Amino acid sequence: MCLSIGDGVRLVPLLWMLTMPMYGSFLGPEPVLRLSLMMMIHAGVGAALPLGLSFIAPYLQVGVLALILSLPVNLLPYALVWLYEKLLLVSEPALLLMEAAEVVRLAMKGSELALAGIEERPGLIKTLILGVTAVSYVVSAVIAVVLYSQGSSALNWVLLLLLVAAVGLAVLTYIVDEGVISNAGVVTMAAFVMLWLMDQELTLAANPRTAPAEWAGAPWADYSYLEVLLSLASSTMVHVHSALHFIRKLFSPAFLLLVVLRIATVLHVVSALSRGSEENEESWSSGEEEEAERSLISAWTSPLAVKLSIILVYTQLVVHHIQLGSTLPGSHTAVTTEESHTAVWQGLGLMRVLQIVALGGMYLYRLYSTDEDF
Predict the structure, then answer these.
(1) Which residues contact 100 (CB under 8 A, 6 or more apart)?
(2) pLDDT tens-digit series, residues 18-50
């Protein structure tokens, strides 16, 4: 299936978001936050275009994007940028819980689809379930060996508890009539992946990169994003090499995995809201209160909400990784002493441990619950 010119033009704003890690590596997190806010403004302008202009809307949006990128970087007030940064910070626990819920939902949904066809193809479906189970536990075992070989004593204790919990999940799944063993395998694999992500984040925080001089003083403040991009092209080789090393260090396979998982999670939440609004469409009366509520739900499930959610989640991950792996003044992530290392472990490690606990709890709830909505 070929993309039309209009479809290709629509991808330009999305592709421009890929420059966020570059801006962050060269100039720090603040320009990334400002670019993210400008991209949200661009999405809002695109959504406000009249339907009669749908044919030329992609080209108008590219023009608006070029105009926005030509404005000064420091156009937005710092107070707004500061509030946005804090919003991204406090959203992390909610996103972690949403990730756990999405893993459970995908595992259960996959097994339901497989069981729906087991009467027609029993051999194939049983082989598929056993294959998924085997692969899941093999991946879990590999991650466990890797983490044990290079982990700290605290991580090894968490690893031991997770192994015990994995056995418990498998047993509880086996004794339940509706249980599918592949679900326990997928959830176990997801838990070990989360533990591996925790180890990656702790390693990144324990070996921070010293922020370059370009991060201080905001020398980019009076330039536009396009001018900043041109100035980056003329940077010294030392600065370029340092920034590229930072990009490779921060945006690893773990980062890419998080981007895919979180965007998929957000899209599912928006899609679930949309399905809920459609199912309740016929129940709306003509009253003003019901009409207002329906308008509110439609706003949350519109293409604009999807775009804003993707921008927010992607920005949150980029800024989080930049701050996590740098000694930016005021950053809490630089690890220089045993006490600070313990503080970082308690912050980053505790959140991931709670995510793993939530993952197991949500799975057990779905396993023993007759409620299909989740």
Answers:
(1) 190, 194, 355, 356, 358, 359, 362
(2) 778 777 777 778 888 998 998 888 888 877 777
Quote the CA–CA distance of 197 and 203 in Å, as a whole number: 10
335: how many CB neighbours lie within 10 A of its CB?
A: 19
Q: Which residues of the chain have pLDDT under 50?
A: 1, 282, 284-301, 329-346
Report the candidate in 355, 334, 354, 322 with the shortest Cα–Cα distance to residue 207.
Answer: 334
Burial 23-44 (b: 16+ CB within 10 A, else e): bbbbbbbbbbbbbbbbbbebbe
**pTM given for the model:** 0.75
Task: Spell out the alpha helix ranges (H) of the chain.
Answer: 5-16, 20-27, 29-48, 57-69, 78-116, 122-150, 153-175, 181-206, 225-233, 237-250, 253-279, 288-300, 303-324, 338-344, 350-368
Q: Count the residues in the chain.
A: 374
